[in-house]
Amino acid sequence: MPSTDARDVVTDVLADAREEIDRLCAVVPDFPSPGIVFRDLTPVFSDGPAFRRVVDAVSEPFAGSFDAVAGVEARGFLLAAAVAYATGTGVLAVRKAGKLPREVIRESYDLEYGSATLEIHRSDLRPGTRVLVLDDVLATGGTLAAACALLEKAGAEVVGCGVVLELADLAGRRKLRDRPVHALETV
Prior knowledge:
By secondary structure, the protein is of the alpha/beta class. It has helices at residues 4-24, 42-46, 48-59, 75-87, 142-153; strands spanning 26-29, 37-40, 68-72, 90-96, 104-111, 114-121, 130-138, 157-166, 181-186. The longest helix is centred in the N-terminal third of the chain and has 21 residues, at 4-24.
């Protein structure tokens, strides 16, 4: 169990990140359609000190438990690359179908209105690699659950999922079953 001092540092890192998210996240009503409230994290990502706090906070609960970070297209790429750099680990791109040039592993999943497919290069991941999966928002959970299933199909051990925002009303955490999920902010 971490010492009280270590827990205080983690609490401070999370509090600082939440403060930055609250200060900078743009709330856009009726986007992309009427009745939807879109939370745009790009102002958080474009502010260097704020982005650093978010990167530190999203990875902190998983410190030392992963060998690689997988970012889900597209904003998850930003987080994953920054966390991988900060922790000296590898980074993987979980892409939408048709974007990767070499042999891939695929995972299809259902969306509210249709379906989608995610892919990774077959040769980019060694079996047994411990992977932290990152994305910007956890909404219905379909994309993040598919990314985890894809990585596990490739032989990885998913150690957990980190997101900046979780939209609690959409109950996406349920699709991730018993996987550890760390959200910096729940709205």
